[in-house]
Design brief:
heterodimer, A: 629 residues, alpha/beta, Heat Shock Protein 90, 3 domains, six-stranded parallel β-sheet, five-stranded mixed β-sheet, B: alpha/beta, Arc Repressor Mutant, subunit A
Chain lengths: 629, 224
């Protein structure tokens, strides 16, 4: 059974793995990472990085673009006076912009802690931009960026070997390297392409084409997935005018990395990200904008630099991923959990709820793994495996269970029919024979009837099972249609049953009929209607079979202290019979219907003599539908 | 028992049947038997309902198989529905005589018939017209009579038991019983008729009917 139920789900999990291998989950997984990053609350310690940005106001007050070298030199001079650890120039400067070019060159010559930017990896080599020749190669970092297929920035491009002897480093890495060297965490240049970049104990994670959710990504050089979750503290930003007017406090600059670049919307140095709630460009964009934000290049470099420095100095987590094997094992694991929950719980609603709970658990695990140790787990494929495997298993399980239930019901109904029909005739016959009361013609008549009934049974069972029709087989050709109102059904049963040739009924002089009108409005399922009818029939037959010379049969249907009551009272002596055990099929039927109605079945003695057989059950509240079987 | 017992000086009868031949047989017979009565006819449910709304009917002779309106197909379901409506909502609660080829559907109305305020009698259509007149009498008397195929055994309704108990155990007058049970004078009178029928007490001018009923009820164990 487990195999039949779980096999389709196993296949489905395989399909999910295939889809992921094909890279079709990439975008969803990226979005999940971005969403987590946006909502996570990392520690808010102050970033070791300050942005000095040239914004639109600065451009207006300077009045010309590019900014003359004189102004740049002035900014650098002021900044240097406050002793930052290193200054990075995140703009391209390879030709003089007079006036003041000589002053700028002098400035760069005198201050070795100023690092320049260059563009090295343009697809079109002519688009590359060389730095000013006054800067020695180790004072230059590239400012090239890599973006994902969905156009968003999630990775930092750190280094790349371009010739066997030459390795290029990015500006953020250069800045972090300079800053950390001052903190006694030197980094040794290495020409090995696959050598991890290492600061003290920290090894920067090495991005590969299939890291995390990525499938076949462009993993040239050394890259790292950015952890926007870790540095939530906004990076302080000063405008050029702020600096020129010395409108800042000295400790904002002292011993910090300063990145000097453009934050003007008119200068096209922007990228997209969904991983940040706010960027420097956010105030410019429409407030109802989607989660996608514009991020300036200088801001992205500042985040990268801050992340490396904080990781080295404060053990702040960088994004780690598992090897593919473990990732797929993780997905299979959650698929297994889904199958297991559905198989174990065996109920549709329970399975559904437990699957939802498990999903919430999975989401929390993924969230906290990212928040606490920077581990990026495959959430989307795992949740897809969990839910689809779980639901599929549940459906198959329900289907199988339904079949078993159907089989059980068929057996039960068959026995019910045999019990209520031929077995009753047989019982009466046996009694007549044992008391020597029978006449030959009566015996023959009864036997004929028995014969007919047994023959008609098959047809009836077949019809009921094959059409799934709700009907109750009474005797021979009499079949009751359960779509009639319950009150009518019960009266038909009452009227029909007491017409039976049973010894107990012969002596009854007074039939006090029930009024089933109280049940007129009650809305019961077909199973429950059937149960109530069977109960009444069985109780009446019991009077006919077991009561000795009753003179009165009182059937009551009423409401007593909030409960429906169906009570069958006779005043005959009870016959002590051996042909049917006390806890017979009839009693079992009665208990089953009582359970189904959340009621109670009782049989007790009547005074001065006789038996009271009753079923009490609470009215159905309209909002509490009992489960249909 | 041999004379019509309606107290109306000019009672109204209604015969509902979609077969003209039946109407032609039944209506003259009724007119002959009850010269004072005004016998009306209807051939479909709608007409019957209109007559019911207009006249204070004493007796309704009805076939279960009726068309909704003239020219439509007759169905026992329409007759059953109209009968149910009639028993619940008719102001005068006329005595009813159902004459039909198949009276078995009445089974599901029997609980309502027991407590119906007027007489209720059912018969098979194939019985001779004399039988119909006899049963019309029975219905006008307030009795209930249902053939074996409708009611497998004679019944003794709980309401009638209550009448017996109030009368012979608590000694209440008819008026007090009516008030206690909240029923009309005619209803109680009909209950007595039905109790008499059920206990098989025969009218005997020399004997007090109520005492006969009491004795029979005690013998049957209905009251202590």
């Amino acid at each position: 059974m487990l195999r039949e139920v779980a096999l389709p789900s196993v296949f489905l999990v395989g399909l999910i793995i295939f889809i992921r291998l094909a890279g079709l989950f990439q975008v969803q997984e990226w979005m999940a990472l971005d969403t987590f990053s946006r909502f996570c609350q990392g520690d808010r310690q102050e970033a070791p990085v300050v942005i000095v940005g040239i914004d639109e106001n600065d451009l207006r007050s300077v009045g010309s673009f590019p900014i003359p070298d004189r102004d740049i030199a002035a900014v650098l001079r002021i900044l240097q006076a406050y002793r930052p650890s290193v200054i990075g120039l995140d703009f391209l400067k390879n030709s003089p912009v007079e006036p003041g070019h000589a002053a700028l060159l002098q400035m760069l010559k005198d201050n070795p802690n100023i690092i320049g930017g260059e563009v090295v990896f343009s697809r079109e080599p002519s688009m590359n931009v060389r730095p000013l020749s006054v800067l020695s190669p180790e004072r230059v970092g590239f400012i090239d960026m890599v973006v994902d297929l969905d156009g968003k920035l999630r990775r930092a491009f750190l280094a790349k070997v371009i010739q066997p002897t030459e390795i290029k480093y990015s500006l953020p890495l250069r800045l972090a390297q300079w800053h950390l060297a001052l903190q006694k965490m030197p980094y040794e240049l290495s020409l090995q392409a696959n050598q991890p970049i290492q600061f003290g104990m920290l090894k920067l994670p090495y991005f590969q084409a299939n890291s995390g959710a990525y499938v076949g990504a462009d993993a040239m050089g050394h890259q790292m997935i950015l952890n926007f979750c870790s540095n939530r503290g906004r990076i302080r930003t000063l405008s050029m005018t702020n600096v020129l007017q010395q409108n800042f406090s000295p400790e904002w600059i002292r011993d910090r990395v300063v990145i000097f670049g453009m934050i003007a919307a008119s200068v096209k140095d922007v990228f997209f990200t969904s991983a940040l709630e706010m960027t420097l460009a956010s105030p410019l964009s429409a407030p109802q904008q989607s989660q996608t934000q514009i991020i300036y290049g200088v801001e992205a470099h500042a985040y990268t630099t801050a992340q490396i420095i904080n990781a080295a100095l404060h053990n702040q987590p960088l994004i780690q991923t598992w090897a593919d094997f473990w990732e797929y094992l993780w997905i299979v694991f959650w698929g297994g959990i889904g199958i297991l929950l559905s198989v174990l719980l065996q109920s549709f609603w329970k399975s559904l709820i437990s699957l939802l709970v498990a999903s919430l658990g999975l989401i929390s695990i993924c969230y906290f793994a990212l928040l606490l140790i920077g581990l990026w787990l495959p959430l989307i494929p795992a949740i897809a495996a969990l839910l689809s495997a779980g639901l599929l298993t549940t459906f198959f399980d329900q289907g199988l269970r339904f079949e078993v239930e159907q089989r059980r019901q068929t057996i039960e109904r068959t026995y019910e029919m045999v019990h209520n029909g031929p077995l009753q005739i047989l019982a009466a016959l046996l009694r007549d024979v044992s008391s020597n009361e029978f006449q030959n013609d009566s015996l023959e008549r009864q036997l004929r009837r028995l014969n007919e009934e047994l023959r008609s049974l098959f047809g009836h069972i077949y019809q009921e099972v094959s059409t799934n029709q709700a009907s109750l087989y009474l005797r021979g050709d009499l079949v009751i249609d359960f779509n009639l109102p319950l009150s009518d059904l019960l009266y038909q049963i009452y009227n029909q049953t007491r017409a039976e040739e049973l010894p107990g009924f012969k002596s009854i002089r007074t039939f006090i009929p029930p009024n089933f009108e109280v049940l007129k409005q009650a809305n019961y399922s077909l199973t429950q209607k059937r149960g109530l009818c069977l109960f009444l029939q069985e109780a009446l037959i019991n009077v006919g079979k077991h009561a000795i010379a009753p003179t009165r049969l009182d059937v009551v249907c009423t409401v007593e202290s909030g409960l429906y009551v169906l009570r069958i009272i006779d005043n005959g002596m009870e016959r002590l019979d051996a042909d049917e055990p006390q806890e017979g099929q009839g009693t079992r039927q009665a208990r089953a219907i009582a359970r189904d109605l959340r009621g109670q079945f009782r049989r007790r003695s009547n005074t001065p003599q006789g038996t009271i057989c009753e079923l009490l059950w609470p009215p159905k509240r309209p909002w509490l539908r009992s489960p249909r079987r | 028992m041999n004379s019509p017992s309606s107290q109306e000086s000019n009672p109204y009868f209604l015969v509902v049947d979609d077969h003209e031949a039946i109407l032609k047989g039944t209506v003259p017979a009724l007119r002959e038997r009850y010269p004072k009565a005004k016998v009306l006819m209807a051939q479909d449910r709608q007409t019957a309902q209109q007559i019911l709304n207009q006249f204070p009917l004493d007796l309704v002779v009805v076939d279960l198989s009726l068309p909704e309106s003239l020219g439509q197909v007759a169905s026992p379901e329409i007759g059953m529905q109209w009968l149910e409506l009639l028993m619940q909502h008719a102001v005068t609660k006329p005595n009813i005589l159902v004459v039909s080829t198949n009276i078995k559907p009445l089974v599901r109305l029997t609980p309502k018939i027991n407590i119906y305020e007027g007489g209720f009698v059912a018969m098979d259509k194939s019985l001779p017209i004399q039988e119909l007149l006899k049963l019309a009498d029975l219905s006008l008397r307030g009795s209930i009579y249902l053939p074996l195929e409708v009611r497998s055994r004679p019944e003794f309704d709980r309401r009638w038991l209550e009448v017996l108990t109030l009368k012979f155990q608590h000694g209440l007058s008819d008026r007090a019983i009516r008030e206690r049970m909240g029923i009309a004078e005619r209803t109680l009178r009909n209950y007595w008729v039905r109790i008499q029928d059920a206990l098989e007490v025969v009218d005997d001018p020399d004997k007090d009917l109520r005492v006969q009923i009491e004795l029979a009820a005690r013998a049957a164990g209905l009251i202590n």
